[in-house]
Amino acid sequence: MILGRKVGMTQLFDENGEVVPATVIEAGPCHVVQVKTPGKDSYAAVQLGFGKIRSKLVNKPLGGHFKKAGLEPRRWLREGEISPEEAVKVGETLTVDIFKVGDKVNVTGTTKGLGFQGGVRRHHFRGGPKTHGQSDRLRAPGSIGASSYPSRVWKGTRMAGQMGNVRQTVKNLTVVAVDPESNLLLLKGSVPGKIHNLLKITLTKRGIGG
Amino acid sequence: MSIIAQVESKYLKKKIPNFGPGDTVKVHVKIREGDKTRTQIFTGTVIARSGSGVGETFTVRKVTSGIGVERIFPLHSPNLSKIERVREGRVRRAKLYYLRGLTGKSARIAEKRKVTKK
Known about the structure:
By secondary structure, chain A is mainly beta. Chain A is built from 3 helices and 12 strands; from the N terminus they run E-E-E-H-E-H-E-E-E-E-H-E-E-E-E. In chain A, a hairpin with a 4-residue loop joins strand 10 and strand 11 (about 185-190). The longest helix of chain A is centred in the first third of the chain and has 10 residues, at about 60-70. The mean pLDDT of chain A is about 90. By secondary structure, chain B is mainly beta. The chains are: A mainly beta, B mainly beta.
């Protein structure tokens, strides 16, 4: 697992000269701030810190947490599962070279927030007819349920509401390039969220080399 | 330099011949057939160049036996071994999409005149 920030998208050419769409991620270096164990914390996890932060923005309890690990404060702290093989200790640094070209990864992030959207945009409803004596029906959702039974609207019925700004994981993206010098990771395909969005990149369970 | 530009710089071609819309070009395309590769030449008029960076493309149009054929090539593709400019055209716009609606004499493009000293 590593933390990163989305830089943007571009394209590159593979060995056959085919165009590959690629997302550039500035990933790591991350520092292990805490290792949680089933004995002490009732679950196993590793807590990583990532990104620079001015010392002024770190409050005392958080500063103390980093001090305990013997590290500079970091902007983001995120937890994740670790497999037994990649056993890490507090204070260790994880860089982008934990990934190799061809590996499959899962990327978790927050999608772009699109605000309160109607059914047409949010669920691809068709809307109503434009003509034939209609008024105010063009983008209406239509029926939201039957009548006397159930006499209510079923839970989970698709309606207008907040769209985006939710946590999303994109699975099985292929690593197309790794640049440990400038901490860059290039993945085939797109990842959630806007540029500068914080991302969590994990190797898929099936792991190395896809 | 932005990070994206830095990443792209590895994939950019060093030398790209100077050509633009209106020019007639010969594009040498590498074609892979099984294990063999051969080169095919596509000759036509450049009707557009679009995009920037590694994603820049150009569109070449030719008319073969009365049927218009257009191909869009990625400018920096390693499959393009060579781009030759055969003729320089004199045109007044960047995108020559109007050529699609024209045939025969009206679809011609005048050659660019070289500036000569008197």
